[in-house]
Amino acid sequence: MMEMAWIVPLFPLFSFFLLLLAGKKMKEASAYVGMLATFVSFLVASAVLADRVGGSTYKAEQVWLAIGSAKLTVGFEVTALNAWMLVIVSLVSFLVHMYAKGYMQGDERFSVFYAYLGLFTFAMLGLVISPNLLQTYMFWELVGLGSFLLIGFYFYKEEAKAAAKKAFIMTRVGDVGFFIGMILLFLQVGSFEYSDIFKAVQDGTLSQPMVTLTAILIFVGAVGKSGQFPLHTWLPDAMEGPTPVSALIHAATMVAAGVYLVAALFPLYEASETALLTVAVVGGFTAIFAASIALVQTDIKRVLAYSTVSQLGYMMLALGSGSDVAAIFHLTTHAFFKALLFLAAGSVIHAVGTQDIEKMGGLWRKMPLTAALFLVGALAISGVPLLSGFFSKDEIFAAAWMHGHGVLFWIAVVASFFTAFYMFRLFFLVFGGEERHGAKDVHESPAVMTLPMLVLAVLSVAAGYIHTPWFGTFLGDWLTDGGYAHEKTPSWMMIVAAIVSLLGIFLAWLMYGKRSLARDWLSSRAPLTYNVLLNKYYIDEFYAWTVGYVANAISRLFYYVDRFVIEGIASLITATVNAAASLGSRMQNGQVQTYGAVTFIGLALLVAILAFTGGYL
Amino acid sequence: MSSVPLSAYLVLALILFCIGLYGALTKRNIVVVLICIELMLNAVNINLVAFAKYGAHPGVAGQIFALFTIAVAAAEAAVGLAVLMALYRNRKTVHIDEIDSMKH
Amino acid sequence: MNGPYFLSLLVFSPLLGILLLAFTPKTQERTMKWLGFLSTLPSLILSLFAFFQYLRGYRLEHLAEKRDWIRFADFPFLTESTFVVRYELNIDGLSLVMIVLASLLAALAAIASIHIKKEWKGYFMLFLLLEIGMLGVFAAGNMVLFFIFLEVTLVAMFFLIGKWGGFARERAAYSYLLYNGVGSAILLIVIAVLFARAGTSNMELLKEMLHNPAARAQLIAPIPDGLRLSLFIALLIAFGIKLPIVPFHRWILRVHVQAPPAVVMLHAGVLLKIGAYGLIRFGIGLFPDQFRDFSFLIAILGIVNLLYGAFLAFIQDDFKMVLAYSSVSHMGIVLIGLGALNEAGMQGAIFQTVSHGFISALLFLLVGILYERTNTTELDRLGGLAKAMPLTAGSLLAGAMASLGLPGMSGFVSEFTAFFGLFQTAPIVAAIGTLGIIMTAVYLLRAVLNMTFGASKSGAAQALDMSVTEAVPVFVLLALIIMVGVYPRILAEPLQAAIKMMMNGLGA
Q1: Which of A82, A106, A131 is a domain's end point?
Q2: H-helix or E-strand containing A189?
């Protein structure tokens, strides 16, 4: 089955083209085309995974473009990681396709939405089976396109337009790093193939500074895509897109591509302590940074978006701590519970018609199923014991501790406390308390929406057990081809993690559930801190004032150079010709004697030249 | 055989030519300008004859040229004076600086 | 196809259209539009035929044509071929690709000419004349013929801009004529010097005489290094105006804005490429040593072009101006590729000429469609086009994506290959240049999203989407862009031999 893996991305691509051409006529049936395509993809992907479990890596390639003696290839590769990602992506994509049928019901551009989803799924699936950096880069950009199109789906909204543009440009800034790093790697190694690069790293063909440089440059690409600080600002804005999109692209799959990339290139990073440290520090910082912003946001999707940024920071921290298994494990569990949370949030938004949590409340009674499912997701992400998030986060804590990142470990623990707090702040504000949302008729979402959520909820609980210190580290063993040496986690660590998350939940309950603590505790005690958090540390404003200002200033400068200097020189030349011409015509004064004088002077000059040069020039 | 050297003729011709040129370029009266042109032609004639006699290859060709020039000059003077008469009838002036209808 | 008339037929087939048009009554609008379009087809068919034959292994040398034409001097001590200008046509992989590009875009531009409102007769006659010039430039086997065809395009373009252009069309036409006239004059001087000293203007012979020590004896007068250097600089300026290289770019702004969009399709799509083609053919072909010495400067010029155009495109208010500066910026990538001085760079440069040909033609096609309905291309007055004209808006977005180098479309292949080449020779310069990749995305998205996204503005609220006739060229171009992007070998393979030969010349 592995040799058929290339077919997995093609089903969604087919759905994209079909819906683009015939979507208008198919209307609601578009959803079934999309669902069918992704479901088939999921089935084939599962078969590939099953095949890979027993077998070894399969790779097939052919020449795409020859540049001189260099042959650039395209193809596909089924490694353990790739097969695993194929299944996750196609599964979440299928569930989101299904959910969107209910969520997008009645939208004028229903089929376009499904077409775009197909395009994105194609690109994402293509990304995870790429055997080389160049192909990865190509699909990397294409998922960016899918994300761009879907963020800008409500194109008539100014916010959506701005967000789409921002997402594309911010990620492109990162992509340029990737681009440079990739080319530099090729120039050193002579190949874009992952396997060749790893071999060169082992042989020492790549010098140490070069390893560090390329690793960090490629990490810049990952920073852009995965919304890590300082290129994170596009991700919260990307919530302008429809909620199913936020679940699929901006939570479960595309934003995890950065983590996937670093994991796929892990041997390169392992060879450079500096690169690993960079990854770890950026990840750790982003984890707490984004979590702190999420504490005070009032838009339900933005809280989840910052939570995503923070969780991606965790994954980067895991990678930087030398544990790609922990990162992929968290990527997996996060894909499930964050998609679940987004879909649940979408279900709420669908029902209430607002995203402002201040305007929600008491939905527990109106939408019991959604509330229960959201609770499962919230518990999982908070790291409550026995749910998936607990195990994967624990693995990250262990990795950070073992790698000697004491400070980063404690940062991660604090961020975990924040996570538990903001998730349950969200939960209590939205589902607890009394109703605050006017007279709107609120009811539970249809089955087509709750069913995918149910599946995700089951996975959010169960996914943790594929890799636990208690029942066996299946995922780790498999990803490392049996070479996974599980370090014994100190038992106090689990207890600390559990206590911290329960503390967070408890505090949220005190403040928003029981109300025994004033809600405006922070805003009244430390208005400055509160405002800084509410305004996301003024990063957007900072960029507008620096990068935006500089770009504008350069453009203005060039504008004036173009307008006045270059055009000025051109006009000067034409003006000179003009002046010479009018001078010449002024000399035509009709006075025969002037002409005679000029003629004579000319003759005299010629004779003089002749006399001085002796007749030869 | 006289002992007057060639250079003397040439200097004479030069002086004559310069006077003619000066007059042709500066005088306002067309009649004077025409006379000055005749002067320049005559300076050339002196040159031709002088070289015909004392040049590197003495011969009759120079003298023939001089005769030609005299004939042409006569014709030119006739045409010039005729044009002048016509102009005078139309414009009531013989001042050359007032005749500039050909300017740009 | 082995007839000795194949290339002449290809180049001069639009002449038939001109003749037929001459006998068509002035009022027959439909007939003339059809005639104009149909007359572009023979050369398109012939060039595609030659292209696919070449892909299948046909040798292009068989197509060369050679006829006696002008003999300047008839001295007994001169050999048969000295001071003779022959009518010589021959092509290699590079010129074949350019010919296919030219004939293809000419056919599509002829379809786009349905928006022309007046004097169709003169328009299509000049249009076809322009096509002859373009095809001839790429097929010419010697410099004199090259120059003559180049001047044909100049004359035809001058009238096309001056008569059928926008409000300031005459100024644009004069601007075009002046800049290109200066460029042509400089080129003519170079040709004259070479002709006087070598006694021939045939490119192959010249190349041989300039480099091969054995053939050097055939020169009438020696061409010392100093003279070579000045000739090379003159060529750089002559084709730099055409390309254009900053600071010789002001004229293309006026042409882009004022000329009718169908003509701009050809202008941006093919005529600018003559600059690149000339630089490659003459600059590298005849003066490889000088080119090597200048390569770093050329790469720098490329970066300057790229960034300068990008930053200026960022603040323009008119979509046509954005595209004009984007042309400047994208031609920078051609220079970057050439300056890289290696196979990758060369391939990138040629890819970029072709790719930009498709993309700019597509974008101007859309500009024409848009202008027809809204009568404006100003960004502030447009908005929300995606609602009223989803197809047009979508194509516009696709064109922008291609232009900013999205993988899977032709722009990416050329951009990637050119930078790939430059990173090998000058990594620091290349790294600075990558800033251009970001800026391209910034200005294109700003412009396109302003027009297509957001709230609908008055100008475009009830505009109709593109008609079938308009859609055909749009989709043909999109398909080509994607084809080259997904399967670049279709371009790389015919170019391989030509690139290899140039690299040999450069001694790399």
Answers
A1: A131
A2: helix A158-189
- For residues C113 and C119, what is the distance between their CA atoms, to the nearest angstrom? 12
Tokens representing C368?
């024409």
- Tell me how far the alpha carbon of residue A613 is from its chain's centroid: 77
Residue C3 — very low, low, confident or very high, per pLDDT cuts 50/70/90? Answer: low
Percentage above 90 pLDDT, chain A: 15
**Does A591 sit within 8 Å of B100, measured CB to CB?**
yes
Both A82 and A193 in one domain: the answer is: no
Q: Following DSSP, what letter does each residue of B86-97 receive, concatenated?
A: HHHHHHS--BGG
Question: pLDDT digits over B28-84, tens only?
Answer: 888 999 999 999 999 999 999 999 888 888 888 889 999 999 999 999 999 999 999
Q: Which of A131, A152, A175 is the last residue of a domain?
A: A131
Cα(A330)–Cα(A488) distance, integer angstroms? 18
Q: What is the domain range of residue A358?
A: 132-517
**Structural domain includes residue A522:** no
Beta C84-89 vs A58-67: how paired, if at all? unpaired
Q: Do both A160 and A122 map to the same domain?
A: no
Give me the total of CB pairs closer than 8 Å, taking one residue from chain A and one from chain B: 31
Residue of C nearest to A188 (CA): C424
Helix (H, G, I), strand (E, B) or coil at A62: strand
- Residue C459: the pLDDT is 60
Give the Cα separation of C42 and C106 in Å (integer): 11
Instruction: Indicate the residue of A585, A596, A597 with minimum beta-carbon distance to B104.
Output: A585
- Write out residues 249-308 of C within 8 Å (CB-CB) of A: 249-250, 308
**Distance between CA atoms of B10 and B45, rounded to whole angstroms?**
11
Residues in chain C: 508
Examine the domain organization and report whether A74 and A164 are in the same domain.
no
Cα gap A184→A182, rounded to integer Å: 5
- What values do phi and psi take at C249, rounded to 5? -100, -5
**pTM, full prediction:** 0.87
Listed by number, the residues of chain C in 334-373 with a beta carbon closer than 8 Å to a beta carbon of chain A are: 342-344, 347
* Fold of the domain built from segment(s) B6-92: Helix Hairpins (1.10.287)
Residues 6+ positions from C209 with CB-CB distance below 8 Å: C198, C200, C215, C216, C218, C219
Q: Quick check: is A551 in a domain?
A: yes
Under DSSP, is residue A153 helix (H, G, I), strand (E, B) or coil?
Answer: coil
> HSE on the CB side for B104, CA within 13 Å?
10
Supply B50's token pair: 């002088």
Per-domain residue ranges of chain B: 6-92
A65·C492 Cβ contact <8 A = yes
Length of chain B: 104
Verify that A296 and A431 share a domain, yes or no: yes
- Is residue A535 one of the residues assigned to a domain? no
**For residues C186 and C239, what is the distance between their CA atoms, to the nearest angstrom?**
9
Q: Are A393 and A463 in contact (CB under 8 A)?
A: no
